[in-house]
Every structure is written in structure tokens, then in C-alpha cells.
Amino acid sequence: METVFKVWLLDERSHVNWKKGLPEPHCHPHHQVFLILRGSGTHLVDGVETRILGPWVMLVAKGKKHFYMPDAQDEGWMIDFGEEFLDQDASWVFSDFLASPNLPLPGDALCRQMGTLARLMWTISKSGSAEARPVLRHLMSAFLHLLQPRIHAQAAQTQAHLTGEFKLFHAFLQELDGHYRTAKEVGFYAQRLRCTPRRLSAACRLVLGKTPQLIVTERCMLEAKRLLVHSDLSVQQIAAELGWEDQSNFTKTFRKATGETPTSFRKVRSLARAGNPGKD
After folding, report:
1. In CATH, what number is assigned to the domain containing residue 72?
2. Cα 59 to Cα 41: distance, rounded to the nearest angstrom
3. Same domain, 102 and 216
4. Distance (Å, rounded) from C-alpha 75 to C-alpha 35?
5. Are residues 122 and 169 in the same domain?
């Protein structure tokens, strides 16, 4: 697998192709951001339907089942990006946007700034230069962090109306971000959240369709991928950084989660960047 990063302009041609394709609810192996500057439509995420009226931002996390159908011509951007493309300070995307995947934007300076960044990423991504990838990664980080105050504010409002299970799940993600390097056992998180492992498991399955143990492993593997791609640490050092005393156990866990060893994962992506700098 290659690191995914692609920017699409939502112009008339893409709208016609979208209609012809008659898309249905589907999942992606990467994340997506829709920045709708003008236009309207319907967005369905895991069975929850929302009417969209631009300007609007929609973020669809990897593996979430979604479907977006514009009413007519939209103006804006769609960005596909893989987990390794996020910086280490962007884990909030995966927690807060689970609560608020659809975010209305006032037509203010923030909206204009985001449109400018999206256009800049679109332009740079077409250059095909070896220098483009790190620049795009920093621009994507800036794009997401510009949204952070609005996302946090809406997530806080949404939390007031959520079920106990969703609140527990959200609290679990917050605890996980703070302790995943040192704590891998579900019982640790259940104790901190003052609930039973069974209740935590039920909440995770209800909200995300995954066990808490799988979510812990995926969080560790996300950080492992980032370190393999964006650092010079050895596999042994990465294993230690993420709390594995035995490198062989870390390698087994990584291979089970990704289908590759850490060494082959790093090698394939290093070769891809060297041989295909413009390919996303």
C-alpha cells in the first residue's frame, strides 16, 4: 500500500461523473475531507443523514460507511489522505470528528483561508516533484488545525445530547491518546473510566463496530506507521517507543495488523518516494 494523498476539484465535470457513477454507501481505506464552499446535498454517514448547505466541511474517517450526493453543482474540494500523512499532533481528528463529522462554516475569513489552502494543495500536488510531499503534509496539517477550534466547539455541543455509550467511547479515545504507548490492556482503560471491560466493549462495538482491544492496537499501529515513514528511528527503537519490550512481538503485531513487516513497510514507501515522487 502507498501513502494516499489526492486533491480533487469539485467542478462541473466531476459532478457529472459523480451522477453517472450513481454512488452508493461505501467505505474507503483512507480518510476524506470535503470542503463545500457553495452548493447543497445530502451526506449519509453510518446511516445518519445530514442535509448540507455550503460553506460546509465533512470529514469521513477511514472505514466509515458514507454517501454524499450533491443536489446540483458544488464548488469546493475533496481531499483523500492516508493515516501516515497526518502529523503526530492530529490525533484529535479521529476522536472529535467521530462526534461531529459534518461541520457548517460561516462564510468568513476561516472559510476563505481553507479554500486558499485547498487550492494551494491542489496546485502543488500536480507538480510531481520530490519536494511536494513534505510540503503537502504540512499544508494538510495547517488545514486541519485551522478547523480545530470549530470542531472542538461543535463536538462539545454534540456531547451534551449523546448517549452514555457514546460519551464513554469518546472518553476512551481521550484516555487512549494519553496512554497507548504504555498501556495496551483493555482492563487498564476500563479501570480509568470506572466501568467494566464488558461495558467498554459494548460501547466501542455500538459506535465503531470494533472491540476496544482492536482500537488500542490500531492506535499503536498508526503511530508506528508514522514513525517508520517520518523518522530515522530503527524498528527496535520504535518498538521501545511504543511500549514493546520485545521487538519480535512488535513485528508480529505489526504484520498481523498491516500484512507487512515494519522493515518491508518502510522499504516499500522509501522506494515509492524515490522512484515515484509524484505518485499519490
Report:
1. 2.60.120.280
2. 15
3. no
4. 9
5. no
Domain CATH code at residue 217:
1.10.10.60
Cell for 62? 477511514
Beta strand extents in 63-196 (DSSP E only): 66-70, 75-81, 102-104
Chain-centroid distance of CA 238 in Å reads 22
Gyration radius from the chain CA atoms: 19
Q: What is the pLDDT of residues 71-110, one digit of tens each?
A: 776 789 999 988 777 765 565 565 545 545 678 887 778 8
Residues 141 and 195 in one domain: no
Q: Which residues contact 190 (CB under 8 A, 6 or more apart)?
A: 196, 197, 199, 200
Residue 129: predicted pLDDT: 75
Instruction: Answer whether 0.70 is exceeded by the pTM.
Output: no
Residue-range definition of the domain harbouring residue 129? 5-159
Given CA atoms 138, 140, 143, 144 in this order, what sign does their dihedral have?
negative
Cell of 35: 470542503
Report the distance separating Cα 205 and Cα 200, nearest Å. 9
Q: What is the strand order of the sheet 75-81 is part of?
A: 5-9, 75-81, 31-38, 56-60, 102-104
Evaluate whether residue 280 is within a structural domain: no
Say if residue 147 is exposed, middle or buried (CB neighbours under 10 Å; 0-12, 13-18, 19+).
buried
Query: What CA–CA distance (Å, rounded) separates 238 from 221?
Result: 11
Q: Please state, in angstroms and rounded to a whole number, the distance separating the CA atoms of residues 81 and 45.
A: 18
Letter string b/e over residues 162-176, b meaning 16 or more CB atoms within 10 A of that residue's CB: eeebbebbbbbbebb
